[in-house]
Amino acid sequence: MQTLNSERDAYRNCLDRMLRATTQGTRIHGLKVLDVDRFRLINQVAGFNAGDEFLGHLHKTLSASLLEGDRLFYLGEDSFAMLCPYRGLKELYAESEQLLDELGGRQVTLGGICLDVHFSIGVAQTEETDQSWEAATLRAERGLFKAKSDGGSCVRAELTQDGEPHQAPAQTPWVECIHHAFLHDGFSLVYSELVDSDFVLTDILLKSGGESVPIADLRVELGSMDLLLAMDRWVLTKLSESSTLANKTLVRLSRASVCAQQFMRFLQRLLTAHPELADKLWFAVSERELADVRPQLQQFLEALKGLGCHAVLLDAGTTADSLGHLSELSVSTVTPFPQALNYQPDLREAVIQAMEGVAGAVGKDFIGTPFSL
Questions:
Q1: Residue 329 gets which letter from DSSP?
Q2: Where are the beta strands (DSSP E) in the chain?
Q3: Where is the GGDEF domain positioned along the sequence (predicted)?
Q4: By the 8 A CB rule, do 293 and 299 touch?
Q5: Residue 122 contacts residue 157 (beta carbons within 8 Å)
């Protein structure tokens, strides 16, 4: 019982961390709840020991199907939950249907009796309005109930009154905002995607000039500043090796890189070996992330300018304090803090007007209106 309680506690704690990331406007995460179809019949026909063995077999099978970063939890009786960071309903549906195709209907022999593997899946995604882990779990369980009601061996999500899967309010992760904002000006987005510190990044996709480079060997716990720095260096090294690097490639740098002198030395060596990168790479840094270390930000941007590199200031605020120093920064382009555009639509026009006015006053270009909401 203690083991089961610990498993449930771990599930709640992990899902709560995911919800905090969603309510802070960073990411949507996914949840799958899985239930064995007609499990009582298995116990009746094969006995409780065989039923326990069956659950153990299913746990191993599901564990083997997890993607990098996913977590599997046993919730008791014949129920399991899978937490899937950074994936919404569309991805969850496709993954669950594939899982059913691969595993559903398989036979396993336990206690001398051949048992069929059948299960149903309910899926949900976290939402900004979720107050606790129970809300997301309840939506997934309603989807599971719908799957059971439809005969089992299928995947379902909670339906709205219109009969459509329940979706979170439309929101665009700020990475996507940056991408859309720069698309109109011929930029390609090459991004080492920063995720929440509670999770481990095990796979990054670099996209450059139509080329996707999977990074399977990088295992970085993003709570470590040293590892954030290592990730930025690793990504830039990969970009220098790309044969199809776009002429205007936006690269987001972490706070760790901006504040570390060794990163600038690394960048100097990289540009000495690959001078063509100075014109191709546009380094994006977050004013919001670095508001408390503005001297280091100023020094870093000046160093970039000295190397002949382009710099873009992201997440610029709208207060006099945060905007007053823009004219002193060595950047050509500023963008607003995307949450002000995405999650406060009533303030969107005011934010854009304020940023356009300030950017013009300090001689900077402003990119805000092309954001996709």
A1: S
A2: 30-36, 71-76, 79-84, 107-110, 113-116, 119-125, 155-157, 188-189, 200-201, 204-208, 211-215, 220-221, 249-252, 281-286, 310-316, 333-336, 365-366
A3: 27-160
A4: no
A5: yes
- Report yes or no on 166 lying in a domain: no
Query: Model's pTM, two decimal places?
Result: 0.47
From the list 120, 109, 92, 102, the residue with the least C-alpha distance to 28 is 92
Q: Based on the domain organization, do 247 and 208 belong to the same domain?
A: yes
CA atoms of 98 and 220, how far apart (whole Å): 28
As given in the structure block, the two tokens for residue 261 are 């002198």
Within a domain: 255? yes
Give per-residue pLDDT as tens, 158-206.
Answer: 754 444 554 443 333 334 444 444 444 555 555 444 433 333 343 444 5
Residue 36 and residue 42: Cα distance in Å, rounded? 10
Pairwise CA distance, residues 119 & 116, whole Å: 10
**Pairing relationship of beta strands 119-125 and 113-116 according to DSSP bridges:** unpaired
Which domain range does residue 58 map to?
Answer: 2-157
Per the CB < 8 A criterion, the answer to whether 197 and 224 are in contact is no
* Token code pair at residue 362: 């300090």
277 CB-near residues (< 8 Å, 6+ apart): 239, 240, 245, 270, 271
Instruction: Indicate whether 163 belongs to any domain.
Output: no
Beta-carbon contacts of residue 61 (< 8 Å; ≥ 6 apart)? 103, 117
Query: Angle, nearest 10°, between helix axes 261-273 and 225-241?
Result: 10
